[in-house]
Amino acid sequence: MALRAGADLLLGPRELPMAFNAVVRAVRDGDLREGRIDESAERILRLKERLGLLDESFVKVHAAEPSLGTDEHGDVAAAVGRSSVTVLSDRDGWLPLRKGWDVFLTGPRPEGAGSIAGNLREAGHEVTAAWTGTRPNRKQIRRAERAAERHDVTILVTSHLGPNRTQRDLARRLSATGRRIVVVFGSSPYDVTWLLEAPAQVATYSTSPVSMRGLARVLTGEIPAMGQLPVRIPGPGGGTLYAFGHGRTPGR
Questions:
Q1: pLDDT tier at 251 (50, 70, 90 boundaries)?
Q2: Binning pLDDT at 50, 70 and 90, where does residue 58 land?
């Protein structure tokens, strides 16, 4: 569909074999012209030529290493992690977290799991984590429910809710406990349309350590939430759920 609409490049599809085979099948079935693929390839190559990327296309790995992962790069990454955290809603005023609240972390284990747990502990919170993976089973869901009932607040980090029914079941069962649940959309802000009932919703766009560190600092009130939506989130029945640029500061 993207190629038929005029896109030249499919950037990082989640399921590469599926995307590749879909394009091949579309060409074989006559839904997509093979010449259309050639036109895209030519445009991409001409752009690379114009930018000088074809003159010396191979990276000298040893020469690149001293320029990567520098303190300056780390500072930029940390700044992005801090400033991108977007509070979509906080209907019951749970954010920032109250001092002394026991925190339960669950959902698919984020890349920055240690960062969020460590920063919450540094802020004085007792933290328990029981990560479930992207497709939790019934036993994991029930265990998470019981843990949520014992803690003051549960932070649920999600990952691509659309194709993951059991992950959605986990979120809804946690919401049904009546306890404080903060849902963090770590992969895509569009996941919010699957969990409209969650009163506290936060988008981080990434689960990297810098993003999870920024999230923890926002949740504890150490820094304000500065993120704003870079997209419009459509409502499930049409219209707009959250507008482009939406974002709010906890406690306001």
A1: low
A2: confident
* pTM for the model: 0.78
pLDDT band at 252 (very low <50, low <70, confident <90, very high): low
Q: Between the CA of residue 2 and those of 24, 35, 129, 146, what are the distances in Å?
A: 14, 16, 39, 44
Element holding 172 (H helix, E strand): helix 165-176
Residue 40's identity, in one-letter code, is S
Return the half-sphere exposure (C-beta side, CA atoms, 13 A cut-off) of residue 99. Answer: 1
For residue 61, the tally of other CB atoms under 10 A from its CB is 7
Rounded (5°) CA angle 56-59-60: 110
- C-alpha–C-alpha distance, residues 143 and 140, integer Å: 5
If DSSP codes are grouped into helix, strand and coil, which group holds residue 13? coil
Mean pLDDT calculated for residue range 223-228: 94
H/E element holding 173? helix 165-176
What percentage of the chain has pLDDT greater than the value 70?
99
Backbone φ and ψ for 11, nearest 5 degrees, come out as: -90, 110
Between CA 216 and CA 212 the distance in angstroms is 6
> 3-state class of 124 per DSSP?
coil
Positions of E strands within the chain = 86-90, 103-107, 127-131, 153-158, 180-185, 200-203, 233-234, 240-242
Average pLDDT, the chain: 91
